[in-house]
Structures are given as C-alpha cells and as structure tokens.
Amino acid sequence: MITATATSLRDSLVAIVGPDRVLDRPVDLIAFASDASFYRLIPKAVAFAGSVEDIRGLFRLSHERKIPMTFRAAGTSLSGQSVSDGILVEVARNWRGIQVLEGGAKVKVQPGVIGAHVNHALKFFKAKMGPDPASINTCTVGGILSNNSSGMCCGVTQNAYHTLESLTFVLPSGTVIDTAAPDADARFREAEPELAQGLLNLKADLLANPTLAERIRAKYKMKNTTGYSLNAFIDFDRPVDIFRNVLVGSEGTLAFIAEAVLKSVPDLPVKVTAFLLFPDLHAACAAIIPLRDAGAAALELLDRASLKSVENQPGIPPGIKSLPEGAAALLVEFHGRDESVRAELERTALATTADLKLMEPARFTHDPVEQALFWKIRSGTFPSVGAVRKRGTTVLIEDVAFPIESLADAAVDLTKLFAKHGYDEAIIFGHAKDGNLHFVITQSFNDQAAVDRYERFIDDVVELVVKKYDGALKAEHGTGRNMAPFVEAEWGPEAKAVMEKLKALVDPLHLLNPGVIINADPKCHVADLKPMPGVEEEVDKCIECGYCEPKCPSRELTLTPRQRIVVRREMARLEGNHENPALLSSLQAAFPYMALETCAADGLCATACPVSIDTGQLTKRFRRASHSRRAQKIALSVARNFATVEPVMRVALRSGHMVQSLFGPKVMPFITRVMKAFGASHQWSPEMPRAAKAPLPVTSLEGAQAIYFPACISRMMGHLPGESEELSLVEALVKVSARAGVPVHIPLDVEGTCCGVPFSSKGFDLAHKYTVNHAIEKFWEWSQEGRLSVVMDTSPCTYGVVTSRAYLTPENQAKFDKLKIIDSTAFAYDVLLPKLQVTRKVGSVVLHPVCSLTKMNLLPKLEGVAQACADKVVVPRDAGCCGFAGDRGFTHAELTASATKHEAKEVKSQSFDGHYASSRTCEVGMTRSTGEIYRSFLYLLESATRPEVAK
Fold it and tell me: In the CATH hierarchy, which fold is given to the domain comprising 268-474?
C-alpha cells in the first residue's frame, strides 16, 4: 500500500538534486518498484542524481533521516539488487560519459553508460570491454562493476574485477576518492582512518588463516559472485587498492561508483564456429577441457530440453527435432586477430574435435549467416521458455558454477531436482568453458503453496551446489536478495564474518542497499515477491527484464515499455483485490498520458525484447477502446474519401506558411495554441513543411521497370523551410531511377491511396483495414498483377504495408503474397546504385535510421548508399526513435524533444555536409532537435550521381 510521500522528504530531495529530478507520484513509484528480478519494493521517492555533490547530499539526507538508499542504473538485476523501499537513486541518464584513453588500451566511463556503447567507442581501436554479459545492449557499466559481470567469453580473467584499472568512488560518509591519483592511498588513510585500518586488519586476519586464504584463492579460479570479493584482500596490499576491488561485486552496498577506468581487451574479428551434437551430457562435458585448451573462445552448453524449447522456431535446422532424449550440444567458437590465422584456427578446431564422441562429424563455418543461426539457437532458449509460460507465472533464471570435471554429473543432478519439484519446463544451458550453468524455470508466487515449493527447491539447489560439488551459488548474477541467506552456507562462518565486518566498517547504519548480500533474515529470498497478475495478451508474456528500455523514446519523459506493463499489472492487481481504491484511481488518472499519449507505438521495443513484445500494440488496444463507434465511422469516412483530404492538407500548409510570412513566425504557433483549447490537437512549429508540389511528375508505364507509389505524406508535405526546393522527393526518385536506366511509373490515380499507418497508430481499425485493403488492390492493378515491383519512398509506410497481411481479406492476402513491395532504401541500394556512377562525393553525412527501417533490417543498405556518396558516414551511437510517430511530434512536442536529445547532442558536436533519413515526419523531428535540415537520402544519391557537365 502506498501512502502520500512526506512533503518534507520531497523538499529535501529537491534541495539536493532540483525540482525536475524528484519523482514521488504513485504512478512513478510503482513504475520504479520493479527490476528484472522477481522482487518488488515500492520506494518512498525516486531521485535522479546528476553529480558527485548530489550523491554526497543524498548520503547526508539518508543518514539524517535514517532512510535506506539504493542506486539503480539499468535495472536489469536478476537478484533484486536495484529495488528499494527507501530512496531510489537513478544513476543512468545523467552519468553517460565515455572517454577512450591510450589509443583504445583503456576507457574511462561513468556508471550510466550502456556496455554496448563502450564497445561502440572502442570499435575503431579494434578493442572492447572484457565483460560480455548477454544484457550488454541494456545493462550499464555501474551494474557490470557492481555485479562483477562476466559473460560468454570473458571467463574469470577478463571480468570486471580483472580489467579494472581505477575507480572514483563516494563513501556513505561523503568522502570522494579517485584511486588513480598518486596520493590516493594517503588521502584514503587520512580521510577514513578507521576504514583503512579495518581493511588492513581484515587482510591480516585472512592471511593468518591459511585454510581460509587458500579457499578464497581456489574459489576465485572459477566464476563466483556470491558475497563480497574477498580475493581483493589477498590480491592487494594498500587499503585504497583493497577497497577499490572489493567494490567490484559489492552490488551497491558499500559506496557509489562515480567513474571507472577499465582496461580493454582485443576485439578479435575472425571467427570459426560449429554447433556440435553429442549423444548425452557426459559426452558434451567431456569435450569441454580439450576444446578450451585448444583455445576456444566460447563453449556454450545446451541440454536436450533447451534444444527442444527452440526446435519449432523459424530457421532452426530440422535435425534438432529428431535428437534423442538426453542429447546435448556445444556451440563452439574460435576467434582470431585477422584473416591470416583463419586456416590455422580451422585446422586446430577440426583436429581437436576428431576424437570427440559426436553424433555427426564436426563442421566449422565462417559464414556469418550460419554463425548467426547457431547463436540464434543459443540465445533463443531463455525467451522461448518465457513465451510459453502460464499466466501469472514469472521466469526465473539462476546461474551456478561447478568444477568443470563435475559439470556433467551436476547437470544431470539438476535435472533430477527439476523433476522432484515439478518444474517440467526447466532447461539448462550455460558457459561451459567456465563450468557456469544457467537454468530457467517458471514460477508462480501468487499463493503460499507456490512460494513453499520454490523455497524447498532452492534449499535443494544449495545442498547440491555447495555441499555435493563445492560450487558457487552465483557465478555472474550477483548475490542480491535471492542468495543472501546462503552466503554462509557457501563460504562458511569465518568468511561470512569478514563480510559482515566489512559492511559494518563502511556502512554501520546499514542504510545503503540493505538486505542485499548481508541479510539476517533466513527467508528474505521469499519475501517482497513481485505479483504477476494476468493482463492484456499483447504484453502478458513480459518478463520485466528491461531490455526494451534503451529503445524507448519516452524513457526519460514518462514511462518505458517495461514500466507501462508494471503499472498496468498493478492496476490489474488492484482491480482484482480492491485493496487500495485511492491508489487505483491515481494510477487510472495518470495512465492515459504516461502510458498511452506519450507512447510512440514504434515497435522498436520488440526488437530488443527476448519474447518479442511490442508494447505499442497495448497502446493501440487502449486507443481503439477509447474511440466511440461514431468516431470509428468518421475515421472510416475519412479513409474512403482520402482523395479529398490530400488537397485540403496542401491548402492548409500553404495557408499556414502564407499567414506566417505575412504576420511573422509567432502567429501560427499562437493560432494553433488557441485552437488547441477548442479541441484541435496539432501544434504549428517552425519546421512545418511546405505543401508538396502538385501535380506529381508525369511518367510512362511503357518501359517502366517498377511502379512508384509516393506515400501520401510525400504527396502532401514538401520541403522544410530553408531546404533547397530544386527537386521534390518524388522528382528526385523519378530522376535518379531514369538515370540508372530503371524507369519507374507513378500511376495517374495514385491520389487518395494510403497505406493505413496513420489510422492504425491511432487505433482506428475500420479505417486501417479499409485503407490497406484498398492499397493492396491498387498495387495489384498497377503492378500488372505482381509483374512489376512496387517501390515506396517512406519507410514507415513500407513497413506498415509489408506487415499488413493479417488485416487483409483472403482475396487480398493472395494478391499480397504475389506482390513485390520494396522500400526505397532497398531499391536504391540493390537496383539503382550498381547501375549509377558517383560523380561527386561529399565529405561527411549523418544518418537517422527511422524505426521502421531498423525493423526491416535495412540500415546496412541505407549506410551502403550513403557510403557510396560520402567519404564519411556516421550513424550516431544514440540514434533511435525520434518520437515523432507520424504526427505525434505535432501534438506532443515534448516526446520528440526527450527522445532525440542524446542523438541531437552527438550530431551537434560535429559538422556534417548533409543530414539524411527516410521519412518526412522523422526528418521534421530531427530538424527541430538539431537545428540542421534533415531530408531524404534520395537527394544525396541524386546529387552524387548527376552527370558531370563538360567544361
């Protein structure tokens, strides 16, 4: 139950971080109550820290009021490390600095930097981060360090602990230390004498206990993130160095990591890969040591159940289905520095596999398509279980480590535990090279019997991993709340006592992320469990992992896709149990703007989601439900009379620009603001395009090699203010096609035909179905029943049509299946570019890959066209959805401003000769955000291929 947050707490937080960086409304607190784990704690407030001084102030406040405090970055923690019932401090959005050092040998990063962005910065130097967690496209450096993350290839030698060079940290006392400073140890001892001496005392105690010291050395030879990193006391002598490395894996319970310098590792581009099939787990595990010793970079184990979970997915080799029960597989990959070593890698790989007990001969490939398929099998195991789980259950993924020589027996014993406790859907896979197994189960926590079942299962897992095999309960996911009760079971009372003393030295009040790692409650792992009520089918399979969040344009404005679902689940829970009508009413009041109006419905979240959820579909469901029958009929009437809409829109644009030219730039924005008060929704902005040229260019069907369908947006919206008006977009495509000897034909009756996307995004189903069926019928007619391809010049419209089959009548589905509908990016790259001669290149261009282009996997082709026409082509690291969402940028300008601010900052930091995209409205949004005119890439292609004029 949520009660009103004390005003004084809000005021105190505002005084530290500012009024725009404190959240305490119920909708915000619920949104931040969950992370990727199966725990939930509702914070008292959420604060967005922006500086070290903010952190120091928040520490002071936490101590003065005795309120717990937890740091959170990406929230991809699987063990409950980033939830809090006190002050939750978000350290992702304002801590994104990256600086490459020493020619790529090192990189300085802040905690909010996404791991993949670090690798993006290091790519030019043929280097990367050591840790390679599966969540690297979402998780941040703060989480990677705090959990001592590893991954598929880094093992125990290239993890966060071993690649750390230095840290800047803030202690709960407010002391700030940069361990890279020459006098760092002296400053540490002077500022924190009790802590410094306490660390030395703990080190001395450990060294005086040879048995415990040797156990520490032995346990860290394999993956192990249970408890604190006690190896720091063995590996280092100076207090500041001990504490620096003890912070790695401390899960935010000891200090705040403000900055880190990490050593990079080589990014080896040459790969040879095989998917080896074995008759049983023992045979697969027997192959691990020889393959590892031969230099294999990746050895991923999959049991029969995990293979079965993906065998029906598209593209999976059919032979997987016929594997016998008990079979297993290893995904094996060798890496090399350049092509000169590829042959030797293949010889080594084949020689090593010659004596293995395989079901079929080993075959190594360097074909990237095949390699991608093998990794698709491996990466598809976890989401496949999530996609088929029962309503009301959550997906739990645990990671344990065993000595490699015991791996096969341990894996078999794990499967026996699954059977004993009724987890029939459980699967096992993992990083076999390091003895690290992941297992996935689905679990309900909706009644006590289910909770008791899980508790009995975990007790047996602890017995198996620790008592029978002396393994690690946590290999790479961190202790969290889930294994906190079992730290002593794994480490013994002496080591646990060292950890408790360490925590007390640094955080004597136990206010910093309490309950994580050190927890006196033996049942804390089954407390504060996250409810998972059933919700709408579009999002019910969500596992709340957070992978979607970096893709979402509203992530720093309102809610992310995960948070939309979290809030919707809480609404469903409260609707079912009626326990807090006031909270439910508050959430219902906030939901329309926070979750629906500011959702771009772009579908990019689905591209990152392990279970392919497009949260925009939930938004469209609610939008449909909000429309009356009369509204649906009006929209259908508009769709049927779209031929009259187009000229009206052109007149409106001409009129608006005329008013603006006569009375100044402030008049039209003022008029539309006034009109908004009377129900109008669109806001005029300085970037509003002028009316498109009319009529369209006259083309001939005779000799045409493709039909050109200019999208309705291209037929209505022309050039932006300040943009060259030499050619319209339609003229540019017609001209460059003719120049390539591939003439296109624009049908004379094209006006009035719409792809349906504007109606679909707004939830007008009847209008959408009418327009897209009408479009397919016209395409069929124009293309001479599929003989000619249909080229579309606006990527969102192309995507809307090519994904529309489910909305078509059976007759039109048959037509659709025979049509060739091509986006202009693919047409330009595949058809035109090979037949054109580039006569003039520009120096540098920047591209904005619109969402639909990304979803169609056409960004490489857009880049290819640009690379042919420019010496330098840049796709910003933070490029993503611009939030314009058709016309939403005209109704909710704040969404576009928030969505584009990071990309715009990168664009504005450099000078480019051109700015290009493949959607007019997205170009409007990027122009507004950057102050630079964005236009279609077709202008770049047309200009670069103009015949040279003879002098």
Answer: Vanillyl-alcohol Oxidase; Chain A, domain 3 (3.40.462)
Specify whether the backbone of 381 is left (phi greater than 0), alpha (psi in -120 to 50) or beta.
alpha
Q: How many CA atoms lie within 13 A of 781 on its CB side?
A: 12
Print the SS3 string covering 780-805.
HHHCCCCCCEEEECCHHHHHHHHCCH
Structure pTM? 0.93
Taking every pair of Cα atoms in the chain, the longest distance, rounded to a whole number of angstroms, is 92
A 10 A CB-CB count for 99 gives 12
The CA-atom distances, in angstroms, between 370 and each of 275, 378, 854 are 10, 13, 21
Which whole-number Å values give the CA distances from 910 to 578, 904, 906, 913, in the listed order? 55, 10, 7, 10
State the Cα–Cα distance between residues 809 and 796, nearest whole angstrom. Answer: 22
- Estimate to the nearest angstrom the gap between the alpha carbon of 911 and the chain centroid: 29
Number of other residues whose CB lies within 10 A of the CB of residue 937 = 25
Domain ranges across the chain: 98-266, 268-474, 533-625, 639-829, 838-944
562: tokens are: 């995960």
Sign, CA torsion 618/624/627/631: positive
Backbone phi, psi, residue 916, to 5°: -135, 150
Q: What is the length of the chain?
A: 951
pLDDT tens sequence across 410-433: 999 999 999 999 999 899 999 999
Residue type, 384: S
The residue whose two tokens read 């069929």 is: 780
Q: What is the pLDDT of residues 387-416, one digit of tens each?
A: 788 888 988 999 999 999 999 999 999 999
Instruction: Give the DSSP letter string of 716-783.
Output: HB-PPTTS--SS-HHHHHHHHHHHTT--EE--TT-TT---SHHHHHTT-HHHHHHHHHHHHHHHHHHT
Q: Distance (Å, rounded) from C-alpha 393 to C-alpha 533?
A: 8
% of the chain surpassing 70 pLDDT: 96
**Element housing 332 (H / E):** strand 328-336
SS3 468: helix
DSSP states along 374-385 = HHHHHHTHHHHH
User: Which overall architecture, per CATH, does domain 98-266 show?
Assistant: 2-Layer Sandwich (3.30)
Nearest-angstrom CA–CA distance, 253 and 230: 15
User: 286 Cβ partners below 8 Å, 6+ apart?
Assistant: 356, 357, 408
Count of CB atoms situated within 10 Å of the CB of 485: 20
Q: Which of 877, 860, 863, 875 is nearest to 118 (CA)?
A: 877
Q: How far is CA 281 from CA 192, 298, 328, 333, 420, in A?
A: 52, 17, 5, 19, 20
The type of residue at 785 is E
Which of 377-381, 507-511, 538-542 has the least mean pLDDT?
377-381
- Distance between CA atoms of 907 and 340, rounded to whole angstroms? 38
pLDDT in tens, 95-133: 999 999 999 999 999 999 999 999 999 999 999 999 999
Strands 87-90 and 45-48, bridge-based pairing: parallel
d(CA 47, CA 41): 16
Give the integer Cα–Cα distance in Å for 509 and 765. Answer: 58
pLDDT bucket at 347, cuts 50 / 70 / 90: very high
Fold exhibited by the domain 838-944: Rossmann fold (3.40.50)
Question: CA–CA separation, 474 vs 484, rounded Å?
Answer: 10
> Helices 629-640 and 642-663 meet at what angle, rounded to 10?
90
Confidence of residue 679 (pLDDT cuts 50, 70, 90): very low
Which letter does DSSP use for residue 109 in this model? E
Which residue is listed with tokens 């969404």?
895
Report the candidate in 746, 736, 740, 730 with the shortest Cα–Cα distance to residue 698: 746
